[in-house]
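#data-curation
PF: Archiving a pair of folding outputs for the training set. Convention for this channel: one message per protein, sequence first, structure tokens after, nothing in between. First:
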Amino acid sequence: MLYELVNLSDQINALNIFKYITFRTGMAIPTAFLFVMMFGPAIIDLLRIKQGKGQPIREDGPQSHYVKRGTPTMGGLMILAGVTVSTLLWAQLANPYVWIVLFVTLSFGAIGFYDDFLKVTKRSSSGFAGRTRLALEISVAAFATLLLMRVSSPGPWNPFEMAFWDTLSTGLSSSLSVPFFKSVLIPFGLFFIFVGALIIAGAGNAVNLTDGLDGLAIVPVMIAAATFGLISYVVGNVNFADYLKLHYVAGTGELSVLCGALIGAGLGFLWFNAPPAMIFMGDTGSLALGGCLGAIAVATKHEIVLAIVGGLFVLETLSVIIQVVSYKWTGKRVFRMAPLHHHYEQKGWKESTVVIRFWIIAVLLALAGLATLKLR
């Protein structure tokens, strides 16, 4: 919205600053933060009144979590509102990447909201059927991947024309970029629609599994957002992309503004989520934030790098998979409790210790992910 002020730069030279992505990204952070800080208390009070007893606590979870009963959930609404308002204010709204990533973020947020709604109203720690939820996530992610592939490829928009599908089936848009190598691509053709959908939906559910302790998920999400804000900027800049031997994807630099908005909204949420938490983000937030990161990774062609930067989320997901498979096949558990953060709680680590050490791991993994930009 404010980007349009660039059109007046001929009359007022100072307005020329609005064309710079770095400036608008920097402004998106405090804008989202202040929005959440201003409206956060009212949202928390409203959710507390509407939910009554708050988020149901897992009966099979750590007993130390029972003291959190009564804490409202759906705090992701605060984050989504801050991200949306700040992005619409500072991003170039003619950029299709911004709208596609926002579509994924808000759609996943809606799916998570309905899941949270069922948990609160049914007073159960389980929402609606997992297969139904996953099918909805895959559908949204597949459609978004198709749009991302089309935006980054020349050709007609009419899907009833063969040229539309021929364009999508070749080139960078339908390939998986391999880090540490300058030009290695794994071509998938139209099957990349399914690959991209799995990446986006997988990222959403990985963050969702990580969200189990106060502040545990939001800080790694902000770290990943900062990392992909930088990646979006360099990938969308032809000079930087050429210097670093990256695959240039025109227009993705604008996603840096969205990443900035996510960081600001995340900081605002953390203010209220810091122990003892006044509110939980719930599936409304965790599913949306993970989906957002996944969509940005697909847009910037750094899908594998997401697995490195978001390695903490990957570890949490693997711990659940390993636990389930091991118990079904052998009747034995590998971890004392899954996801992984509960395992360390059961070993006697304090919640704050688990959270801070996991944050440290997230920082190290983000640095490793950034290293892939240069090591080629």
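PF: Second:
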Amino acid sequence: MRVLVFGGWGQLGSDLAVAAEGRHTFQRPPHSEVDVTDPLAVLEAVMEARPDAVVDAAAFHKVELCEEDPGRSFAVNATGARNVARASRRAGARCVYVSSDYVFDGEAPEGNQEEDPPAPLNVYGVSKAAGERLVRLACPDSLVARGSGLFGHAGSSGKGGNFVENMLVKAAAGESITVVDDQFFSPTATRDMAERIFLLLERGVPSGIYHVANAGSCSWFQFAARIFDLAGVTADLSPRPAGEQAVRRPRSSILIDTRSAALGLPPNRSWEDALRWYLAARPTAAPILPGARGAAG
């Protein structure tokens, strides 16, 4: 299978490249060559590659910046997604749009299933929900793949960071760490998410929405505690309530996968098993830049 990925140099894109090795022909033009907000550049890239599948992993995802610049958020996450979907349809390729748990309002304590109606709380979530809708309209043969709290090894090299690396850096510096204990999610290893996306494509699953997060859920505080436990790190860690936040975030952004069993697909592994693998396989990490999405202070 020939696969073209936009946004292919981030955490997820890097793991898509690894997962494709020995299985699929893989192309990931850098942002400097193809910007998803440029419909002509996107169309040219897709038509030249002649892919069987196109994955749109490009995103403007720092929630604070999305509030400050909603125009850019919608240009990348919604209009850009439509550009990719239209080009995919014209080329006869299947389109995969990478979306987010932030399309939900977090009012369901047990989490949300695939077909629950979106009700985002912030600009980022609104732009991703719009992107989902535009992709499904522009390319009926499309998949929406939602993840939650992504962490991947590419993030540890300073390309925006991730929560796991931020926690380990803070602990190594001897900082007192407080993490919110009343917001819950489904931590997602980008390697597992990448493998899941390829599984969906390889099995030729029906178009629609898929929750590809790792199984299970936890609070951000529980996630941090498990990071330190599995890494064998002693940390000055304490819980705190979310309280007032500059940008509203869902209280429960747990993603429930109801489609795998119905389609006879194997379940995704638990977030704890994914975290254990991530820590065992992580390279020596560089200092992390501020701004990774998370809930620590």
